[in-house]
Amino acid sequence: MVDKKNSRDTLIEAASRLFRLRGYYGVGLNEIIEESGIPKGSLYYYFPKGKEELAIEAINHTKEMVISKIQEVFERIEDPIEAMQALIYQLSEVIGESDHKLGMPIGTIASENYSTSEPIRIACQLAFEDWQSLYKKKLISSGYSEKQSKEVSIIVNALIEGGILLSITSKSGKPLQVIAEQMPLLLIKK
Amino acid sequence: MVDKKNSRDTLIEAASRLFRLRGYYGVGLNEIIEESGIPKGSLYYYFPKGKEELAIEAINHTKEMVISKIQEVFERIEDPIEAMQALIYQLSEVIGESDHKLGMPIGTIASENYSTSEPIRIACQLAFEDWQSLYKKKLISSGYSEKQSKEVSIIVNALIEGGILLSITSKSGKPLQVIAEQMPLLLIKK
DNA sequence: GTCTATAAGACGATAGAC
DNA sequence: GTCTATCGTCTTATAGAC
Q: Most buried among A112, A182, B9, B153, by the most CB within 10 A?
């Protein structure tokens, strides 16, 4: 098992990477098949409904990548404030690099398609909800109330999405750094 | 002066509206000329460099619309916490409406183009900076320190952008409402 | 399952009449 | 300044050979 991934996964990974960079409409199928090396016929064999179906799989792939990253940091760092700060600092460092290929994980696709493709909108909504569940679980297990945990998880998600947007737009990790530094304020136990 | 706007402004307004809905790559020039009623020849007369040039003008137009809205609320409400809460509540109400045409004001274009068009990226960056300047000015005039005002203005901007994204994706004003409610925590004077 | 060739239409952009 | 017709390219999608 050296380099042998199946065509389906190869396509999903290429699509996930490209959609993060330029969004749904900014990437054509031709670019995805070129990047992945999989011919167009195979794409339509695995994703008969075409681009929209591939995009939904790409969104789910990106969602799982982010879940893994969050879980890894949360298992390593017990304190919820420190853990979330570490997560955001990591993001700021990646974006600080000159030619990162991060983009907003799914924010771009979500904002392009919220009014045009209901299946894509729902896939994005589920991703946001799953991430928020992880934040919430971490907070509850650290003694925060159900209500505050839920609210803070929304705030943290919004701060990360907004922070990534500001950081990629300004080509600087600074906005995310400032956000990480202010995290303790949000997490005052009530 | 009843209904007579010049072709240039009509094009910019139509482009601004459509780009907010589906982003830069999600909207074609054909749709913009159809929506505006201005023929393609005129578009290239006013914007010789084509779509990118029109997009930059549309971004600046959207920027000014947002500036007006912020200034209006800030002049009406003196307390900075209450003012920012009012701003965000207003947003949540608009998005709660079934067929709003809000979208992320410029976040979608920014995230699509941060790696592909430097002129567009810079126009978006300037918009974010201008909005943050208004938040900062409000805070300073209410007695917050220079440092805290600057940092909070970034947080507020990130929260609004992220909150709009979560609200349009979930088709609910709830995320923005939660954000508005938690504003006081961020604005504890240090 | 894999791949090529191509269809049908939308895209951004341009030429040139008026 | 205004408008139409059109160019070449790229788009999503399909047909059909292997």
A: A112
